[in-house]
């Protein structure tokens, strides 16, 4: 099957008890159940997808992606919303995001090139990165990105030297506001003890402002910050607004310059399991706007143009990972359910201890659930996808498992550990399915290995 081919699958109707199953609360809104245990997403049966495309596989609900883009546009009508491509990017994703009126936040020349060749307007793209390579900067300038986020003082001169004579590149300065927020220490980026940004506390931010303003080929458009990931409270964002507005006021006092833009980054939490907290986007928008307006009024500043950068909150809940059970082992008082994927297609449990809620799909079981550990196929004891999760007591080889909230930081962080190819991405929408990214094959491995 080629990437351009489209297959029509059976569309399932929701049973009478639809909405009662709270276990589906973290699944895409289009998810429907059938009495025999079948689940469909986007009007397509997951068992049929597994048969057609194999497992493991990522299923991405196009309608869910678009709906989440529209939610952000409605919540932030007078702001710029940039989709954080590092969460997941392919040509179709770039196309959907652009059609829904969002900009794009990229972290490398690779992400940037892919977006632009897809037709994404480069002026609506922002380039990030704490250690941008010469290729990253050269590509950004060649393609004409709208903003480059400067992350260190050393980057200022390097970037300015590459800007063609007679032109100016708009830049933002990434500020570290000294705010701890995020779901895990590894994803908290608003404090001074990590690699990103320019510190307010030690004066690095203020020094960088002066350096940029002295560069005739750079135009300081505004300030940027990103506090971390999986932030479920609005309060850290309000604190960031107050501190950054304070810096804006200081810049005007010291340099006589009023910066017109303020980028608050992303990091908006989603629920991975039923009952977990997610960030209320409507509340975030209203309270941030109110705080920004009040803080600017107190400082005598005009309100800058606001930017937010959701990634996970758009892609994550739109994805489902499909796995086939390979073995069930009962040992040491535990039950290990081994599947045909693992840490190569989802390293997040090993990296951050993230917990998921796998579900048996394709058949209905009357057995009482038992707590099991879902493990991967790789030669690592830490290759665990989900610990202490309830699955039917008769779980057996050949069963199909679905893992929701798999649209972000799965394929984008996937590896080829043990030379296991990365899974395909299949889009579903209105009862139709199409391949977006093909499965990595043994031929791919052979073609890359050119030495002997």
Helix content range of the residues, please? 25-40%
The N- and C-terminal alpha carbons lie at a distance of 33 Å
Determine the structural class based on helices, strands and strand pairing: alpha/beta
Strand content: 15-25%
Main sheet? 10 strands, mixed
| Oligomeric status | single chain
Annotation field: number of helices: 12
In angstroms, what is the radius of gyration?
A: 23 Å
Q: Which spans of ≥5 residues are poorly predicted at pLDDT below 50?
A: 1-20, 186-190
The average pLDDT score comes to 91
Can you tell me the overall shape?
A: globular
Q: How many β-strand runs? A: 22
3D architecture notes:
The chain is of the alpha/beta class and about 450 residues long. It is about 30% helix and about 25% strand. The strands form three sheets. Strands 1, 5, 15, 16, 17, 18, 19, 20, 21 and 22 form a ten-stranded mixed sheet that branches. Strands 6-7-8-9-10-12-13-14 form an eight-stranded parallel β-barrel, surrounded by six helices. Strand 6, helix 3 (about 90-100) and strand 7 (about 105) form a beta-alpha-beta unit. Helix 4 runs parallel beside helix 5 and helix 8 (about 235-255) runs parallel beside helix 9. Residues about 1-20 and about 185-190 have low confidence and may be disordered.
SSE blueprint:
Blueprint: E1 6-8, E2 32-33, E3 39-41, E4 44-45, H1 46-53, E5 57-61, H2 62-75, E6 80-84, H3 91-99, E7 103-106, H4 109-118, E8 125-127, H5 134-143, E9 147-150, H6 153-162, E10 169-176, E11 198-199, H7 204-213, E12 218-224, H8 235-255, E13 261-263, H9 281-299, E14 305-308, H10 312-315, E15 319-331, E16 334-339, H11 348-352, E17 359-361, E18 369-375, E19 384-392, E20 400-404, E21 425-429, E22 432-437, H12 442-448
Parallel strand pairs: 5-21, 6-7, 6-14, 7-8, 8-9, 9-10, 10-11, 10-12, 12-13, 13-14, 16-18
Antiparallel strand pairs: 1-22, 2-3, 3-4, 5-15, 15-16, 15-20, 17-20, 18-19, 21-22
Helix pairs in contact: 4-5, 8-9
